[in-house]
Amino acid sequence: MGTEQQARRWPRARRRLVSVLTVSFLTLGTGLAHFTAAAPASADPMKKCTRTTGAIVAVDFGHWGGPVVRGCDATPTTGYELLQSGGFSTAGTEHDGPAFICRIGNGSFNRGKQYPTPAQEDCVLTPQATAYWSYWIASPGQRKWTYSPLGAMSRTLKPGDVDAWVFGGTDIGGTKGRPTFTPDDVRADGGDPPDPGDPPAPSVPPGSVDLPAAARWLTDRLTNGQRVVNEGDTVPNYLATTEAAWALAAADGESPAARRIAAFLGRPEHTDAYAYPAGKDEAPDATAAARLALVAEATGKDPRDFGGHDLLGDLLANVCLSGSDAPQPVPGCTTKGDFRTTGQTEGQALAVIALLNGDVTPPAEAVTRLARLQCDDGGFPSFLILDGQVCESEAGSTALVALALQRAGGHKAVVTKARSSLKKAQFKTGAWPAVSYSVPGSAYATGWAAQALRALGDRAHADAAVSWLSRQQLPGGGFAFEEGTPDPLLYATTAALIAGAKSDLVTLTTKEPAPPTTPPTTPPTAPPTTAPPTTGPTTPPAGEGPDLKKGSAYLADHRRLIQGRYYEGSPRFADYGLTIDGAYALAATGHDNTTLRNIVDFLDKGGEDASGRGVHDWTKVGTKYAGGGFIGKAAVLAESVGRDPRAFGGKDLIAALARGVCPAATPAEPRKCAGKGNYTYATSVFSQSLGVIAQVRAGETAAAASPVAYLKSLRDPSTGAWPSLIGEPSDIEVDSTAMAAMAMDLLPDAEAQAAVDRALVWLAGQQLPDGGFPGASGNSVNSAALAVQGLSLDTEKYAAEIAKARKFLASQQNKDGGFNVSKGGQAGSDVRASAQAVGGATGISFGTLTRDLSGTTAEPVPSPSGPPASPSSTPVIITPGEDGGTGSGGSQTSGTGGGGSQASGTGKGGSLAATGSQVTALAVTAVLLVAAGWGATHLARRRRETDGGPA
């Protein structure tokens, strides 16, 4: 995935925001969230969205002194539709059309004025990475925002999902600049219907826990900053040490102290001493193994390789298959489903959570064992009792089991009863007692109960608990076990700190998709091996790999390829970058030369789409915004199929590239020229590389000397890899390195060839155990395909890595022939991912890609038609006008929220980068992401209209 991929993420989120039926203001200050309703006349009222129905979107206008405006869609489909239906107007860029959302407005803020304003951003090209609308998502129950790997059009919403849009200050990889509010701050209240007999939340003044003070208190308890040692002892208190790690990770996801603890506990001698007291080859202490696994999960370590043990595997292997009444009872097994040696409810629940958060399904008997412990009052005991034994519930045990069962799913009635039990046991002060018959409030019990109720949707009860905790915090930052006692205790402080952070044990140990430090720049969709011009299909590399014939058919399908000639970025707007990507892929495989010819003819004759735009409205040749990457991308296609790049689409692309070589940086227009040799508006390594390839392939080596020198200067000297962006800080990445290596490989000088060798060594070192490669969307199909192209520059040396990567690509191919965006991401075929996968799997470099189209016949180009513009294919501007709303008129301007990176009607857009011609990593991505999902949204909206539902 490349720069284009990133760019498309943003638009997608906007679509979903559009369906927001009710708009509210969220003003964040001193830890409190205030909501003011402002529902558009045609919007669903906010009450129709709960934690289990509908979806919520929040757009933060704080960059301009405005509020966070949220809205609800009771029948969610995509992120883009959510944005539109919620009363948000959008505008795209002149370069990409509505597909890339450049501005957002809402009638509830400043009379619907769209931001950024034209004075702040002209929205001709893709905005820079430091000033754009970033898209964040949270699934039901998720307490932290994740930077979306998909665009709003391609992300399919589920009931209870929450989206957020934040402007500026976010890098394109989503590694910083998260929303200042949490998903819970903007979620709808409620969730599963509470028991009618449940009491209301206590009425108490607001309050918050001083998290830094509590974290400092905990850190001060650590010996050598890595373990807890009880006073008078010399050996670590391992159990307390794990608690400290969880709490510190909750206070700060990147806590150095938490990571030091994990490193200490992960040393084999300490893992063995704590979790394997009977011997490292014997069954573990299940509670200890679960605790260590959760520490690993909370700090980014692997619980399947921790301290020399596979903790999760050992837990699974030690679930009791029978009980103490078996003919030959197993030591440590009271009944079927117990984790051996646990004995306590805590250990059983922790083991279930650890397995689930490590992507391992626990045995059904182990989960059922927890559910069967429920007492008559809905609570849970602290011991693994048997049927008929006395059941005395405790708040801490009840909270932990409720968290585990909610995470496991399938026990809704049990969880609902546990929620009621906790709410009924809550004091009017907001506290819970340590045990049911106790009078003072307990920070330990209150901390656990608050965690569970917040996770289950009872935010008001959890907030009341945090209010009580805030009044119990001692001067040093710690918490006593019960109110009225002066001495702070570690166990009480850890539970209170996690609750005060508005987190819970499940959330802080759940793996979040790690966004790449920088999204890959626009990648070319063609493969690498040197092959002479051919008309027959390319013979793929040996070994297991994707079905290229089936993949080519997916790309050529007229349900995606409009009139058999172009993909749409949004209704009636061609996505020229994606169209060229598809052509690269078809040229690489040779499985459908007729369709390839149609695409090339369409572009060569100007490429007029249904909106009246042409291919050079995209390249901007002849204007002050001419983009070297866009021009280079089109020129490489012409060169690959035997057309003249000096007369393609009516323009001399090679001359345009030469004119676009910057003589120096332009500080007043930083996006235009970052330095001498940079092509104008080539803001990514992908774009620069495409320009170089085009010039060198055209025999203009001398004219390319300055761009080549500039491309070489961008290389990281310590690794030999290339970053994503030009002119802005960004990290080295697979996509850009592979692309730059393809460009360097065309050059005969020793420096260039040495650069290729180093780049390939670095690329090979990035391969993941399953054969994939890290990219902007996670374990990325796009990045794996580009890596195959790069490594295929030296097939003999990297044959094993190539074979492994092609096998990975095959695992991501769907029945329709298309490919997923990433492993473990949203399932479903994506045109951009598929184009890159199909072309990349052949191993042919963009520098050598050649396809002879002789023998094909020109077919008439149909006149532009396509779906008519209508309210269901362009964003509808809705003015929030509910009583109390501040905006009067809505933003009636060009609500041009766009389509998606997916070709029309597919409904599955990808967050992938197109072959590098986008202006910035953002641009590329945003356009792609949005475009992809237009079809699904369009169909869903039509279906809703047919069914009589709100559209």
Characteristics of this structure?
32 helices; 16 strands; 951 residues; 7-stranded mixed beta sheet; alpha+beta; 7% strand; 37% helix; 3-stranded antiparallel beta sheet; disordered N terminus; disordered C terminus
Tell me the layout of helices and strands.
Layout: H1 3-18, E1 24-29, E2 32-37, E3 55-60, E4 68-73, H2 79-85, E5 88-91, E6 103-106, E7 133-138, E8 146-147, E9 162-167, H3 183-186, H4 211-220, E10 222-223, E11 227-228, H5 238-251, H6 256-265, H7 268-275, H8 286-298, H9 311-317, H10 345-357, H11 364-371, H12 395-408, H13 412-425, H14 443-456, H15 459-472, H16 490-500, H17 505-508, H18 548-556, E12 568-570, E13 573-574, H19 576-589, H20 593-604, H21 616-619, H22 628-640, H23 653-659, H24 685-697, H25 705-713, H26 734-744, H27 750-765, E14 773-775, E15 778-780, H28 781-791, H29 799-811, E16 822-823, H30 831-840, H31 921-932, H32 934-946
Parallel strand pairs: 3-9
Antiparallel strand pairs: 1-2, 1-4, 3-4, 5-6, 7-8, 7-9, 10-11, 12-13, 14-15, 15-16
